Amino acid sequence: MGWGTNEALIIEILAHRNAAQRKLIRETYAATYGEDLLKDLDKELSSDFERAVLLWTLDPSERDSFLANEATKKLTASNWVIMEIACTRSSYDLFKVRQAYHARYKKSLEEDVAYHTKGDFRKLLVPLVSAFRYEGDDLNMTLAKSEAKILHEKISDKAYSDEELIRILTTRSKTQLNATLNHYNNHFGNAVNKDLKTDPEDEYLKLLRATIKCLTCPEKYFEKVLRLAINRLGTDEGALTRVVATRAEVDMHRIKEEYQRRNSVPLDRAVAGDTSGDYEKMLLALIGHGDA
Amino acid sequence: MGWGTNEALIIEILAHRNAAQRKLIRETYAATYGEDLLKDLDKELSSDFERAVLLWTLDPSERDSFLANEATKKLTASNWVIMEIACTRSSYDLFKVRQAYHARYKKSLEEDVAYHTKGDFRKLLVPLVSAFRYEGDDLNMTLAKSEAKILHEKISDKAYSDEELIRILTTRSKTQLNATLNHYNNHFGNAVNKDLKTDPEDEYLKLLRATIKCLTCPEKYFEKVLRLAINRLGTDEGALTRVVATRAEVDMHRIKEEYQRRNSVPLDRAVAGDTSGDYEKMLLALIGHGDA
């Protein structure tokens, strides 16, 4: 991309701009270089730094549609990324991702997800990405109790992809679902995610537990993704960049709190210890983005 | 509702107003009578005339969310109405129905549909109402051929609720689906709906055929609904009012053409022969709504 030696300037400029400002920058970039940033993303990126810069510079709904599309492709397939986008964005933001997906890929998000997944994964992921959940605080306790009972029956029967279980997780509002899972915990003695841990190696069960975590306490989910990305042998830069670029403007503050609590070390210090050069500087700038 | 003797005036005023003008009227109604028209709809309506007036006066997305909600309720349940709304509205209009559903019912459309349906009907209807289909003209002929083959295999096996068959019908764009069904017809010798007529009494198969009709030639679907509503012993006013009120501003002209062609009698004459009084006058005004 020929940015030459201006990395420090790029970090200085981009990392401290909000979404509206970055949109302007992107338009200027297109006018100056005659190329769209999104196009550059499609090319093989030469470095983690460039990927971080490009992801960050995109509009949130374009960024998510790009990540979701990548996650449906064979070589970069990831059920987790699809689930994460479907479950941690607001209902309307998820809809905007679906609109951006139409515009860019001339297809629908759910059509690609349905086409590229199968079995239990498809049964869970297609309704997740198609959902437009109600977001009010309205709560039906009778329903929460009866659906906690359904969840308990299905999980006791190890019917983890039962259509009733999937219906509840994929259509109920987060407020309603939270009440249902609290009742489950109070009434049946275990948190639902504990009862879903019968086989720790089962990939579908892992995704199901992560889904529940994303829907009820996203900052804990993101803390864990970061922890695993940093602590493993050879950093998982894909996950690290994704979480930092997508959460910097949303809930990074709570993720940092959660990270500190769980790891007894601040997130920025953990990231600094695991990355280097411009990539490190960019991530640290984004992690500190919301700070005054 | 105490409209007294002003029915002629109501017809005169309302039936000739477009959606924006009716919105104004509705606001005036609320200011004058201190009540929302939608609220009145929830009451037992005393006549077909009143229901026609109220349905027509609503904003299209409110009207559809009202009809869809009614269709998920026990006493007024209708898989057909749900399917019709999901398949004959544009992608964005269907999304607006989902937004209106949140606002009015404090729940999501798909959550009510999923909760109130089961078995094969649920498997088909939930993805239909959750879809945000791509609407461009882009077409993948290789895909059309391979998916026509999948449809043929599943239908030959009588696997009518197979997940692949449902995936294709519920996620592909109407343009893409049309190409797939054309290839099916050319390559396997029958229209898909002919092959789906193995048991003419099967309710799920009827709904499946209607779904395909709605997705590929809605005016033929609506012509048939009108024909059956008018020709049966005792008019089906529910279906008649619904189709007239929801299509008057959309494709009534094509539905009238189709009706004339199929029945050798103009739609307005058929309606006039089957209804009477203010109800008749209101329907005829709406059927002629688009005419100069």
TrEMBL record, chains A, B:
GO biological process: response to stress
Gene3D superfamilies referenced in this protein's UniProt entry, alphabetically: Annexin
Keywords: Annexin, Calcium, Calcium/phospholipid-binding, Metal-binding, Repeat
Binding-site residues for Ca(2+), renumbered to this chain: 2, 4, 44, 230, 232, 234, 272, 274-275, 280
Signal peptide feature range: none
Molecular-function GO terms, alphabetical: calcium-dependent phospholipid binding; metal ion binding
Superkingdom of origin: Eukaryota
Family of the protein in this entry: Belongs to the annexin family.
Comment block on domains: A pair of annexin repeats may form one binding site for calcium and phospholipid.
Protein name: Annexin
Organism: Ilex paraguariensis (yerba mate)
